[in-house]
Amino acid sequence: MSFLDLYMNKNPLITSSDDGNENSEPVATVFGIPFDATHSYKPGCRFGPDAIRDSFNNIEVFHPELGVDLEEVNIEDLGNTRHTVVASEMIDMVKKITTELAAKKRQLFILGGEHSITFGTYPSFPKETGYVVFDAHYDLRDEFADIKLSHASYLRRIVEERGDAENILHVGARAFVQEELEFLKEHNIKTISDRQIRNGDGPKLLREHLSSFDSVYSSFDLDVLDPAFAPGVGNPEAVGITSRELFGMILSFENTNVVGADIVELNPYHDNGSTASLAAKIMSTLIALNLSKKNN
Fold this sequence. Notes:
- This protein is α/β, with parallel strands linked by helices and about 300 residues long.
- It has one domain: Ureohydrolase domain (Arginase, Chain A, 3-Layer(aba) Sandwich), CATH 3.40.800.
- It is about 30% helix and about 15% strand.
- The chain has 10 helices and 10 strands.
- It has helices spanning about 5, 50-55, 85-100, 120, 155-160, 180-185, 195-200, 200-210, 245-250, 275-295; strands at about 30-35, 60-65, 70, 75-80, 105-110, 130-135, 170, 190, 215-220, 255-265.
- Strands 4-1-5-10-9-6-7-8 form an 8-stranded parallel β-sheet, with helices on both faces. It has a two-stranded antiparallel ribbon with strand order 2-3.
- Helix 2 (about 50-55) packs across helix 10.
- The termini are far apart.
């Protein structure tokens, strides 16, 4: 039995304006993980996947600069995973689903949900896959609120499980504790700092990292953005980067095979629509960049 049959609710919500493409080969696959059981500040991220879909259905998805119109392609939406409040069960379920989907060699998007979901998604890809995370926090605590499987410790668990810290690039951190900084330095995890982004060096430094990998998985914690641009997140941090700075770096993926990406920490309860719109734009842009590369 497929794990998709076992764990997915099969309620696709992303629509296509071109009904004629429903039977064509999908250019990307999407699924959501409505999980926020370890969240510690503003719960509600479990409603993020459907908010991103709603925004995706209502923004323009034509990318004239790339020569790509997503209204003319088929994007497969598998719906959301079965709901659980037990982190270990969620991680196990997500690893099985992602491993099955990654084997299909189709660009994969995972909609969260809190950031702990990435402990189930990224490690399901081949070990040589590079990892780029955009986040205001390092998420390298050994434990948080007396648990080790947490949104604040997922990246530490990945480093411990895979032992490939050299594959990781962390972008945009501006809020962390001393324990995390010590772990970061001990394992030589590469970073692009908030200051480097403000100085305009983000895209160049990101391209340098990406050039070392044939394929990359990227994780977008929306709190990397300043709350002025993304108020609807679980753990907002002031004095962040702008949406233009973020998309300037996203365009650095233009020559990179982005095999998977997750978009996490969207909290619709605290959003005015702008955060969901940015999340949808991230997904739309990454799909368009992938198609543009294939078309050229």
